[in-house]
Amino acid sequence: MVASSVAAELIAVLVAVTEAAPQVLTIAEGASLPSGPLSPEHRSLQAGVRAWVERQTHHPLGYVEQLYTFADNDRNAASHADGRAISICYLGLTREQPNAKDDGATWCNWYDYFPWEDRRHGSVGDSTIVQALHAWAEAAPKPSQIRARSLRIAVAFGLEGRRWNEELVLQRYELLYEAGLVAEATRDGITCHSDTSGLGLGLPMQQDHRRILATGIARLRAKITYRPVVFELMPPMFTLLDLQRSVEALAGRLLHKQNFRRLVEQQELVEETGIMAEPTGGRPAKLFRFRADILQERAYAGTKPPLARS
Amino acid sequence: MVASSVAAELIAVLVAVTEAAPQVLTIAEGASLPSGPLSPEHRSLQAGVRAWVERQTHHPLGYVEQLYTFADNDRNAASHADGRAISICYLGLTREQPNAKDDGATWCNWYDYFPWEDRRHGSVGDSTIVQALHAWAEAAPKPSQIRARSLRIAVAFGLEGRRWNEELVLQRYELLYEAGLVAEATRDGITCHSDTSGLGLGLPMQQDHRRILATGIARLRAKITYRPVVFELMPPMFTLLDLQRSVEALAGRLLHKQNFRRLVEQQELVEETGIMAEPTGGRPAKLFRFRADILQERAYAGTKPPLARS
DNA sequence: ATCCTTATGCTCATTACCAGTATAAACAGT
DNA sequence: ACTGTTTATACTGGTAATGAGCATAAGGAT
């Protein structure tokens, strides 16, 4: 009943995939996510986001879902003096990389911000990160805290026999933030107790936008394992390898080709077009198209896991 | 960047389970969910919710997560004239039913609001609902809309060979709302074209609180299948049947006893206390306790599905 | 002793999942 | 023409998860 008045904005994590590279739409030369006002003329928030994004990018948004609402006092430089600033964040998927650079928006490979999340070609640089994190863990005042931190590190980075979980994007970023290993942390006044201070992993963003992006990546990585949303990122026709490369780009790891194909086909999510792809040096591949008719049903019926897996 | 100023409030879906009945904390004699202000003195929203709830109920909150942020113009009577009212909703789990009726808060069985969601003793009353929904579908102006509506109905209610999906709580409520079969719809000016008008299924709530509750139930039902959160609702010691009854209460359907036990034990989520439960007419059951030590790890590591299934 | 009730242990078939092998279809170079 | 390279596609075996059932154990009540 008690409703305080606060400053609120919409923030969008807009994702596309081009050539096996996951892209996110940014402004301010890659330092910010696009944000817009909470316009009262739309019936729902969702509709507001969609309208605003489509007006800016001139591209239809295939899929939109709410991501999270952030309102942390200490992470948002834009907080009002009187109240709190709320960021209502959305995740949007769009087909192809739009050429619309009109208003200073650019598409950036999201692994520029999270290099450690791309493990398609091995886990390069992990040891440095883990070392620095362990230094931070050891710097905790109480033994119980040291243990707690070490456990968090081990779980997040798949150490000690655990396996890497590609959905823990946010947990990993938050660890690095708390340990002072990303630029935003030092900016926010977090001191790094280890001598590896200021590793400055990945490109920073303004305010807490990188955290929002991490949330979006995590959500999308989780989503593709149980909802057929990858197709929102694909062109009208694609080969199964194209599709696999896109999933791999999002998940940050490679998949078993044969099993991937079987999964896709037994899901009956695609159908042949009868057209063959351009030759690329090997046996030419069939072009497939997404079965839009099945989407309606699968869009919210929890059936089998549509894609991904090891 | 453009940040409009809006009215904002916190809303909590607080859940407990007593005697195989899922309970939700309400105010205004069951017509509202508890809501509080967006107090700027807390570091995060989460902390704010926790503090405010614990102060009101005098009970520790075992688990809190953000649910959704609603800001629909047409569903929220509390909208400002100038701007938009935002409801940031949280889901909270608490152990046992607190006796705290201090400030007019009462615990209500959530199936009072969603009778059709409880299928533990068969699907009573479904045919009436489905009939009324089909009447609404047929009343659509265009054939394509009729088909779309029929599909939504079939998916949501598991018709035509499909199976009931207990996580589609929100979809079912929204269908009933659109079809004018719940009291809120007529209140909001939605006319019901069929003669089954005003079925008035379930108890109504103020504003869009029933929709928020539906969202909470859906989320919780999904959550228990992949995170061990049920234990937040259990007393310190319980029998495996107690645990099963709680899961069944939340899921709204019965589970296979032996398989449930196998799942719980192979997850190593519980340990024996050595104590036996009070005799209840059959062979006495062992009392178990939740292994709090395992929680840390499982809390965010995506391992095996902890509970539920058919 | 017999029956009822609940607890608990075990089996079995089906299916999902993972990894590997084998073959097919194109092209480039010798 | 033959060989090697690349990519596509088919098939196979092992393991684990899942769903449904049977059987037995341990208590109380008749």
3D structure, described in words:
Chain A has 310 residues and is an alpha+beta fold. Chain A folds into 3 domains: 7-113, Nucleoside Triphosphate Pyrophosphohydrolase (Alpha-Beta Complex); 117-187, no CATH class; 234-300, Arc Repressor Mutant, subunit A. In chain A, 33% of the residues lie in helices and 20% in strands. The first copy, chain A, contains 9 helices and 9 strands. In chain A, the strands form 2 sheets. In chain A, strands 1, 2, 3, 4, 5 and 6 form a 6-stranded mixed β-sheet that branches. In chain A, helix 3 packs antiparallel against helix 4 and helix 4 runs antiparallel to helix 6 (209-223). Chain A is globular and about 65 Å long. The termini of chain A are far apart. At the A-B interface, strand 1, strand 3, strand 4, strand 5 and helix 3 of A face strand 1, strand 3, strand 4, strand 5 and helix 3 of B. Chain A binds a DNA duplex (30 and 30 nucleotides) through helix 8.
